[in-house]
Amino acid sequence: MEKSQTQILKEKLFRPKKNGWENLKENKKKDIFNYAKEYIDFINEAKTERECVKKIKEILDKRGFKNIENTTNLKAGDKVYYINRYKNVYAAVIGSNDLSNGFNIIGAHIDSPRLDLKPNPLYESEELALFKTHYYGGIKKYQWVNIPLSMHGVIMKKNNEKIEINIGEKEGEPIFTIADLLPHLSSQQEKKKLNDAIVGEDLNILVGSIPFATDEDKTDKVNLNILNLLNQKYGIVERDFVSSEIEFVPAMKASSLGFDESLVAGYGQDDRVCAYTSLTALLEVENPSRTAICLLADKEEVGSMGNTGMSSSVFEYFLNELLNKTIGNKPGLLDKCLKSSRILSADVTAGYNPNFPNIYEKNNESYIGHGISVIKYTGSASKGGASDANAEFVGYIRNLFEKNNIAYQNSEMGKIGIGGGGTIAYILADRGADVIDCGVPVISMHSPYEITSKFDIYNAYKAYEIFYKDE
Ligand code: MN
Ligand code: MN
């Protein structure tokens, strides 16, 4: 049947919403599922920024990247990385163009919301031993009780020995949890606002209950037993906690979700889904024209400060080293490079959640399975805090994606005034580069079990690859 005049005009003028799975070829679906399998393995193995860095270093080493500090001169096609204090990474493939023409940079973050230990964490209450925590990042506290938690991190001993800890991930290992109140005694708690029902000081993790076997000294016997066990296993004493970074994270394994297995459920997908896709996309880059850089930052969830966060000048150190070792550096050259750089701030955004339809302004949301989300500005009601990408740069990005058949959507995050959020975009934009947010939509962001679509993950990977490679 022939198309009507109206149909033809509609197809020409409207922007239809499109579910990416529709009319997808079987071999493409297979590629998407295979890629997602490797991604799931990655987020199961890398549940903290330090574990991410370790895993990423392994991947980069295997793929021929060299530590930039072990190089003197660099030429087009060379691959280098720099690891900043075990917590954040920059990796680059040197382009054949003059570097002063700018870089193609993709930046994601590898820290995720979690529960950190306080400096003096251990206490005993009625013969139960507990750890005091201080939550990191924007969590809804009630979501973190009565779920299995695992313990990750490092402890620096007095003799400077570094103890690495990972308990609760392997089969047969103990887990930990925060005990919520039983419903039978919750009538007061349930009258509270959701935000007050569980407060920061309630996030105390149960870690043991057997008293140390002794007749003398009636106090702190469970604590003593716990410390004794830790001393036997790791050689640590209570004071060593002050020089530790211990993170408790959900112990659940990431896995496929749904009868059709189209989704991924798992902890830490904000923003490891963009970190993994931008990293693996960089591995596909050989001899680019413009120098391609993947930066994986720490501390995004608490404002990007500190020497491993995006605000740190260690990123400039890495860029200066690239210039030193290629075309030679000079005052002001880095500013010129940054001004001419194109950057994707690869961070997740809110996917439409059908349980809460009234929160969203349906014409301007990200939909699961509709591809990567391009976000011109973040911020809150007034666009406050947003770097707001220039129309010219948005034009460049949409043309690049359309030319290369990347499924993309353009969105905000919820109705105006409902909330808001930010990314590393503004920090890089402040340095003069063209920056736009561009990442995978997530349902239940910052919860212990975040949800993404395998279609969107794969599209992000492909979008990042063509971005790195564009001339
Ligand atoms: Mn994020
Ligand atoms: Mn976040």
Features:
alpha/beta; Aminopeptidase i, Domain 2; 9-stranded mixed β-sheet; Aminopeptidase; 12 helices; binds manganese (II) ion; 20 strands; 23% strand; single chain; 2 domains; 6-stranded antiparallel β-sheet; 471 residues
How is the topology of this model organized?
Layout: H1 5-13, H2 26-45, H3 49-62, E1 66-67, E2 79-84, E3 88-93, E4 103-109, E5 114-125, E6 128-136, E7 149-156, E8 162-167, H4 187-191, H5 194-197, E9 204-208, H6 221-234, E10 244-250, E11 255-257, E12 263-266, H7 269-282, E13 291-297, H8 314-324, H9 333-339, E14 342-345, E15 349-350, E16 372-375, H10 391-403, E17 408-410, H11 425-430, E18 434-439, E19 441-442, E20 450-453, H12 454-469
Parallel strand pairs: 1-2, 4-13, 4-14, 14-18, 15-19, 16-17
Antiparallel strand pairs: 2-3, 3-13, 5-6, 5-10, 6-9, 7-8, 7-10, 11-12, 12-20, 16-18
The protein binds manganese (II) ion (2 copies).
- Write the CATH fold name of the largest domain: Aminopeptidase
The strand count comes to 20
Rg value: 24 Å
| Domain tally | 2
Protein structure class: alpha/beta
CATH architecture of the largest domain: 3-Layer(aba) Sandwich
What do you see in this structure?
With 471 residues, the protein is an alpha/beta fold. The protein is built from twelve helices and 20 strands. It folds into two domains: 16-112 and 267-469, Aminopeptidase, CATH 3.40.630; 114-250, Aminopeptidase i, Domain 2 (Roll), CATH 2.30.250. Strands 1-2-3-13-4-14-18-16-17 form a nine-stranded mixed beta sheet, sandwiched between helices. Strands 8-7-10-5-6-9 form a six-stranded antiparallel beta sheet. A hairpin with a 3-residue loop joins β2 and β3 (88-93). Residues 109, 270-271, 300, 347-348 line the site of one manganese (II) ion. The site of one manganese (II) ion has 3 residues, from loops.
